[in-house]
Design a protein that fits this description.
The complex is a heterodimer of chains A (439) and B (257).
Chain A (H helix, E strand, L loop, with lengths): L1 H18 L8 E5 L7 E4 L11 H18 L2 E3 L18 H6 L4 E9 L5 E9 L4 E10 L4 H17 L8 E8 L6 E8 L6 E2 L7 E6 L5 E6 L6 E6 L4 E4 L6 E7 L5 E8 L2 E8 L4 E4 L7 E6 L5 E6 L6 E6 L6 E2 L6 E7 L6 E7 L2 E7 L7 E6 L1 E7 L5 E7 L7 E6 L6 E3 L4 E7 L5
Helix pairs in contact in A: 2-4
Chain B lengths: L3 H23 L51 H5 L15 H25 L34 H12 L16 E6 L11 E4 L8 H17 L9 H4 L1 E6 L7
Antiparallel strand pairs in B: 1-2, 1-3
Classes of the chains: A mainly beta (439), B mainly alpha (257).
Chain lengths: 439, 257
């Protein structure tokens, strides 16, 4: 009997053993499903000038890098007054504990050195403070006047390394500079750096200019102008400042926008009181009709893969957004919210369409997925209009008239809607259009 | 084989007899197992942060449970245990860096710890984090550490939630990246008794972040940064064996709308 007992006891013990937890020292598994979206604290001390001279450039470059990163909303630039270590040589490993104390997670250390030929060499290293390793290092040689572009290129490199996405700092923005009384407004084509620096005019104030758009592949702008009295679509080459009319049509053309490959311009042509969308091939200069509907079809914008076009049409009553094939096939309405939807722009990332929306006498900038779902309003005022995407599809610029009669100004907002900022312009400004990253 | 027809019914009969006889069989305690060790610890894995299973109306305190003594070897070896950290300073080529390192390490630790504490206290809801690892006398049943096989003690749900709450403050979620659902990262860490990192955290998946595509590389770097910045972790010292090695899975899918 006792033998049987023992046998049964053993059987049960075996059963229990099978149910026992994992063997000793197995790693504990923990799922982390919630995190934060706070800006990453970054330290950008003034760039050193070990070779003497060039000290001001180093300070200026660091200041512009700090401002760029801060403005993106993804980084927080730590006040340089808090820094403990003074970086004297960019090739020396920093004292990481000194940077951890000020809570820096990344450190951008750089220096500028004058070269014998009058140029200046600017170099930097990006350090991961917690991992104590160098992430990236670059150097640039340039004329001293070019320091701003170097600062933007450094900002782009830092942004790319720390976010995994391309930056957008070494870019420019064309816009319409406005001046004069409301009744006799002067509207000139102007261009500036993405941060508002280096503004300059491209056209004289003799004629009105509207809706400029940057080519995604070349240094060209397309826009609408009244130069000949009748509204026409023009091309402007930034490299040689030449402008030309895009096709000489008897009727009015407007709302131009480049296709993503830069090979064509989508535009609206009005003929006999009916507006439809056309594609103008830039090499053969041939116009191809894409829509044929008695309603007003306008504001075309192609998807980054070129396969689809979003546009605005009042064929269903009020203006709404529609998506069709690149050849004009299968137009399908995608916006169904209350109000009127206008000026759709497909994100360079492809995942969203930005638009202007009018409801109850106010205008808003919003985004939705290409199928019309997930609509979100990012900014709203008396008049917010004309969105344009940063080349990485994370930030939108637009123009705003804060109240009736107020002059227009340019603003930027990121996809979270949390980071709304005014872009400095010399005077009133409207209709911004973002360039691709400069080569 | 010839006795198979005998053995089979015999074994069946034996089993049935065993079941019937179980209560009496059990009277003499089994040699290897003590009765209260026969409780199988259940590891609850994926609970949301709100899922503190602590009973709301305080259940009668388990007075028979001796209050968990402060573990013998563990009490705050902050200073000593901090020492192994600098050796992880892999490729720093400038030797003078090492000196200031040790001095500076301490203030940072204290500061982080304090911040962490404040953050946890801040959480006003009866939510994750408010329970410190040392189980207090009013611990709800679910919080009572139980002896398991091999001397291991499972972490309670609230201890896990407290750990998650610590990480939540340190992890920059990639939810705003394109296609965030795919940016799931696993990281393995080894800890000292004081909750500090015993060595640099190791990426598990992707195993080699440097060769991953940029968004996944950055997601992995953010996860590694999160555990570095969050350390030292506050965990119940008496369960050290259980949490000496942890694999974190950083999964942004729940944050995607």
């Amino acid at each position: 009997m006792s033998a049987l007992r023992r046998l049964i006891a053993l059987v049960f013990a075996a059963c229990l053993a099978a149910l026992a937890p994992a063997p000793a020292f197995a790693a504990l598994e923990v799922d982390i499903t919630r995190g934060h979206l706070n800006p990453m604290p970054v330290a950008v001390p003034d760039f050193a000038a070990p070779g003497g001279g060039g000290g001001q450039i180093g300070k200026d470059v660091a200041r512009v890098v700090r401002a760029n990163l801060e403005r993106s909303g993804l980084f927080r630039s730590i006040n340089p007054e808090a820094f403990i270590e003074k970086i004297g040589d960019v090739n020396q490993t920093p004292r990481f504990p000194d940077w951890r104390i000020v809570n820096a997670q990344a450190l951008v250390a750089g220096q500028s050195t004058p070269l014998p030929d009058g140029r200046v060499r600017i170099e930097f290293r990006l350090w991961d403070v917690s991992g104590e390793n160098a992430v990236v290092g670059r150097q640039y040689a340039t004329t001293p006047e070019n320091w701003r572009r170097i600062a933007h290129k450094i900002s782009d490199e830092v942004y790319k390394q720390l976010t995994g996405e391309n930056g957008y700092f070494d870019t420019r923005v064309v816009f319409v500079a406005e001046s004069g009384p409301r009744t006799r407004r002067t509207k000139r084509l102007a261009i500036m750096d993405q941060d508002g620096a280096n503004p300059s005019f491209l056209t004289s104030g003799d004629y009105q200019v509207l809706t400029p758009r940057f080519s995604p592949t070349t240094q060209q702008i397309t826009y609408m102008s009244y130069e000949t009295g009748r509204p026409r679509v023009y091309l402007f080459n930034l490299e040689n400042s030449r402008q030309e009319v895009l096709g000489d049509f008897p009727s009015m053309t407007f709302a131009p926008r480049f296709t993503p490959d830069g090979a064509a311009v989508l535009l609206t042509q009005e003929a006999g009181g009916n507006s439809d969308i056309y594609r103008m091939d830039l090499r053969r200069r041939r116009l191809e009709r894409l829509t044929n509907h008695p309603g007003i079809d306008t504001s075309p914008s192609a998807s980054p893969d070129g396969a689809q076009i979003v546009f605005n049409s009042d064929r269903g009553g009020a203006p709404q957004l529609y998506v069709m094939g690149a050849d004009g096939s299968n137009p399908k309405r995608v916006s169904f919210g209350e109000g009127r939807y206008m000026t759709p722009v497909w994100s360079p990332r492809g995942d969203l369409i930005a638009f202007t929306k009018q409801t109850g006498g106010r205008f808003a900038i919003g985004v939705m997925r290409p199928d019309g779902s997930g609509e979100r309003i990012l900014s709203e005022s008396y008049l917010d209009e004309g969105p344009t995407w940063s080349p990485n599809g994370r930030v939108i610029m637009f123009f705003r008239e804060a109240r009736p009669g107020a002059g227009p100004s340019i603003w930027s907002v990121d996809l979270t809607g949390q980071n709304l900022r005014r872009v400095q312009t010399p005077g009133d400004a409207s209709d911004p259009a973002w360039s691709p990253l400069l080569p | 084989m010839r006795f198979g027809w005998i053995l089979s019914p015999a074994a069946h009969a034996g089993l049935i007899a065993g079941v019937l006889a179980w209560p009496s069989l059990f009277a003499p305690p089994l040699p290897e197992l003590s009765p209260d060790s026969a409780i199988v610890p259940v590891d609850v894995v994926t609970f949301a942060d709100k899922s503190n299973v602590k009973a709301v109306g305080a259940v009668a305190p388990k007075s028979e449970e001796p209050p968990q003594p402060e573990p013998e070897g563990a009490p705050q070896p902050k200073e000593e245990a901090a020492a192994p950290e600098p050796e992880a300073l892999a490729e720093a080529d400038a030797p003078p860096v090492k000196k200031p390192e040790k001095k500076a390490e301490k203030p940072k630790r204290d500061k982080l710890d304090f911040d962490q504490l404040a953050l946890l206290l801040d959480r006003s809801a009866p939510d994750a984090g408010q329970r410190r690892p040392q189980s207090s006398p009013d611990a709800a049943p679910g919080d009572t550490p139980r002896q398991a096989f091999g001397g291991q003690e499972a972490l309670t749900v609230s201890e896990r939630d407290a750990l998650r709450a610590q990480l939540r403050e340190c992890w920059r979620s990639p939810v705003d990246m394109p296609n965030p659902e795919r940016l799931i990262v696993r990281v393995r860490i080894e800890l000292n008794r004081d909750g500090s990192l015993a060595r640099q955290p190791q990426p598990v998946s992707p195993a080699n972040p440097a060769s991953a595509d940029p968004p996944l590389r950055v997601a992995a770097e953010n996860a590694l940064r999160a555990v570095r910045v969050c350390a030292p972790f506050t965990l119940p010292p008496e369960k050290y064996e259980r949490w000496r090695e942890i694999i974190f899975t950083f999964d942004p899918r729940e944050m995607v709308q």
